[in-house]
Design goal:
Chain lengths: ~350, ~350, ~350, ~350
């Protein structure tokens, strides 16, 4: 997740204090126990979640969607001036110019880059099992009932160096190969971008009914098991790959401010519908794919995050770019991607590939 | 490239000094000018290289290789204790436990990770246009005749913050969708792993003839335009994903030492053959995919690196793992992957997907 | 603190697991409440601790110790190969070669360095108010009764970006100017280095009686209010500044292993004596200045750390080098140093100055 | 140096391009050879420079300046929102909350911080031998005629991991103990702050005559051998320690913008005067202590930097705060400080101590 309660975060200093107060308040929710979220259907040892649904049949069916032989890459640019949530950042330099060499009679020289960043949770970012949890009366609980304290990989000194069984490497071993479905909300609702929702009836909240309406309007078969569902809201076009490098620092700063001030996205009803249909991944062009700061559940923060990820192991990839697919009028494709096998990481950067 | 002249590097202090001496010697090679390496066939403005060869026909043909509906992820684990070249490293922590929250009545909490690393050149790593160059009498020249001094993206202060037109984001926009061919050298040569080559006639150097022999033995069609060619040497099994987390620190250290002491790989004759056949990517289970410290060209350091990458824009991905493909006896597959769109980076981490 | 329970840490994998078990066990101590550690004598708002004792009279008296006009710097070298506790590290590169320029007709160029490290807790390191605390039944309590949860400076997202009122900047505003007393334990005990203590009666534990004996043998006035007391054990000579850069990588690794396998240091009786005498700082040539793994208090881990720092605001600086002072036979000097004013940091690197 | 040509840097995008052009132009200056800057008076092997002048007599004389027994710490706060030059930054987090523990029956827990920064060249920052050089026709030359290419400490791979003989650790072994002289330019010129100089006759340029005038007005003895000379301009009060943490993000951003838009400082005539008088350190409350963007030498960028540091080994410490000294009316004091012994670093952070 990248921008829970973004309005407060992007707001004034007093709004910051308000949120800080909320944080300190340490509310709990025991819904996970009341509703028996765990163990999941894949057993108490499972570390993968919904991608377990992928079968050879599903793969072969998805492969059939490749008809034109075209390829689109769906990742956004990573750079120091793109939008970030909170104190996240991207700091890259070139160590030495060049970094190394000269070697051999072919006079080889080379460059590396050196990067410091919250690697799994910046830019195009994937939420894995260790990212989102729920504070319960029994501790902070994550996917498949794992308490973070028990899960952490600790150095002997107590230092947490990774998420242990909640690490993304287990999902990354499996990967995502699926039928990709792109829902074009601006095309359906007649407004681009969708507005930032400030009330529960805002068109910026994409509901289950909206999903059904879009599928029908776009002439798509219903969502099916193993599918990956993507939402285009238009909000992410504030930092389109093609435009971004050409903008001035001032224009970038203004767009970042707008981008992080809230965002249209799925309401919980849409996510519940996807869960019923047994999808394995949500994705979209915003930083959370959850309507913010107001969703269709009163008082909840990014409810799709806890209900889909923590509860069901349906993962989420944020800040995707659909420009080429939209230009080509393509709403169904073979989606192929796997997170990086970073031991103990909470997520992963990515540049997924769509074939159609 | 990750381990040029690894023998010297992993060797004694005096070997280090020797290499340091070599570095200081600043030899040049004007082969790029003598042989008119530039502009490439895609014009002087091209920033992508060989992936330009990919056509819808090539994609559709490669997609037909998916028959069983199976998926393999080819990336290795990223962790602080895997092998690194020189002073490269992987340092990851979890900032705060948890990192943030609590938010909303769903009591959401979250974790991030914080990473410092040479992101494009550690673990499973992709060599993009800014990574490998040649020191000529006219400066350090990279893909398509770009002088690094002209290419660098500089902050106003002179600070180099990226590789400019040599950045990997241009290749990442295109991505790699191709017929993947896995060459099983141990199966062909009857030795696993292949030895580290210490003389030009070592079986650790995979030649053009070896390639033809393997294709025949494995019953594969010849290499074709747009293909991606992968070499299994067995050397990379020193840090197999399935085994690595179970090893002791001592065992890991010993294996790292062995892994970085040199490696079997392609000789230049094999690479030249691939270039003739117009492939777009080489890959393998070692850190360079170039035989080291001795190749089939006297005095050259990792000659495939300069001849394929700098000269022809045929890129390279290192430290892959083929365990599942080998177990399934699969040597031909649909390969789908794209580097991260990191502005100005020299390479990218990855976890490519094979479908078959 | 840098090396609590070092024996376990440096030991075998099973010892690691044992310690990991200890960590998970989450024992508590309510001694701070039972003994009314807070508020301290400087009031509930105090963020400085014992350095509050420093008066103009104390400063003027300490200044009188400068007789020869000589200067010694007491810091150790910072480098990537020095001993570290747990996963701490030092990673420094030069971004660009050079980093920037050329500017002006004076053709100015410049270099920076880029560093990633646990800045306050590596090498010569100072323990400030946010470093050491006690887990009580009411939470983790730090200097002057501050609960870490209340103290943290949080970004609106919940991200902890600093220690808040426990930050070292408050002590750094005050600094340390004091009579420095160097206790020469090897000279007193006739063994250099002192052994790593493995039983409570080990000569590697420096007791209150040892302190009195050393003061007498060295012809020094008793410890007084505002003093800074330093312990030479000889253990730190494993990585002497003058020798370190000349050692081979192998020799360094061996010495690091020895250095982190445990260490001689103060027993709690010595620290209690210092506290009675109202000192403001302890220092020494080891990574903790607390006898380890066995001290004179059964079952305690680095007891001087909690009793001096958390309870009394008597701070601690580790990994100092006394070579020049010892060569000059100097055991009393003007000590001048202040931590860096790093907002919210737990400690500070340093290179203190002794004048005599 | 921290802000050479700051006006251009802080200016519009076109100004940035202009400067980038300048950088690319790669002008050279052979003044160092024409004027025989090397070897310095301390011999060709010297790595310390002017601090070599410090004698016991100088130390004892400076110690006599301590009359009241008062102490001032002169460092500024380090935080992520303070002014930075170019892409420099300060990124600190707390790894784990807490970072480690629980240990022993004293239930010890601990925090570390994790920092990524250009450590020697941010905030209160010291310019050591490896920081400033001159591009000559024979390469980039630094203190005592060291060519950076020869000086670099390289890993066997060619990776530059430090400045070698130009590293700050050699100066840090010696340290600075001196008579500190504080020149109060606003008090002398009747304007606070001094203006940013935009023409050679601006009062924002502090000349040799100004220095003599200030010494006389402040009733101070002339500058002498071994002295450390500090300049108060008032410009640094834009980020006073006492005010900074209370400002809003917007107010901070505005002040940062103003601070980096240029700065008053020494003209070369003042520096030449100091050099004649054989001082060992300059310091001040700005980021360079060199008048910018216009000084008293046409076309030169931060001329005191090359003339004092590269040529004479008279070092420089930037972004100091003199508030307490000014409030106490103190212009002469014992200055005690040493850089960190960071092997191969270009500079050091600091929090120097003034005793008076």
């Amino acid at each position: 997740m990248s921008r829970v309660l973004s309005l407060a975060i992007a707001g004034s200093a007093s709004a910051m204090l308000l949120l800080a107060g909320t944080v300190a308040n340490a509310q709990v929710s025991d819904k996970p126990f009341e509703e028996n979220w765990w163990p999941t259907e894949w057993g108490p040892d499972d570390k993968v979640g919904a991608p377990n649904r992928t079968t050879p049949e599903i793969v072969l069916k998805a492969v059939k969607l490749v008809k034109q032989g075209k390829v689109a890459t769906l990742g956004k640019l990573y750079a120091s001036d793109i939008p970030f949530f909170g104190p996240r950042m991207w700091h890259m330099t070139i160590p030495g110019t060049p970094t190394g060499g000269v070697f051999g009679n072919n006079a080889l020289v080379f460059h590396d880059e050196l990067l410091t960043t919250q690697i799994g949770q910046v830019g195009t970012q994937f939420d894995g099992p260790g990212h989102i949890g729920v504070r319960t009366s029994k501790g902070d609980m994550f996917y498949n009932g794992r308490n973070r304290e028990d899960a952490y990989q600790r150095h002997g000194t107590g230092y947490v160096v990774g998420m242990g069984d909640l690490g993304v490497e287990h999902v990354a071993e499996k990967g995502f190969v699926c039928r990709g479905v792109l829902l074009d909300a601006p095309g359906y609702k007649g407004m681009n971008p969708l507005p930032i929702p400030t009330s529960p009836d805002s068109p910026g909240i994409v509901t289950a009914d909206d999903v059904k309406g879009m599928l029908e309007k776009q002439g798509l078969d219903d969502i099916g098991e193993g599918d990956c569902v993507f939402l285009y809201t238009g909000h992410g076009d504030l930092w389109k790959n093609a435009d971004w490098p050409k903008l001035s620092a001032e224009e970038k700063a203004e767009r970042v401010k707008k981008f992080v001030s809230g965002e249209p996205g799925f309401g919980l009803s849409a996510c519940e519908y996807f869960a019923e249909r047994k999808i394995i991944l949500t994705g979209g062009d915003t930083s959370a794919n959850d309507a913010q700061p107001v969703s269709d559940v009163e008082g909840a923060a990014a409810p799709c995050h806890t209900e889909m990820q923590t509860r069901r192991g349906i993962w989420n990839i944020e800040n995707l770019e659909f420009t080429q697919l939209l230009e080509d009028g393509v709403h169904e494709f073979l989606f192929v991607w796997s997170p990086l096998k970073m031991v103990g990481a909470t997520g992963s950067p990515g540049n997924p590939v769509a074939l159609y």
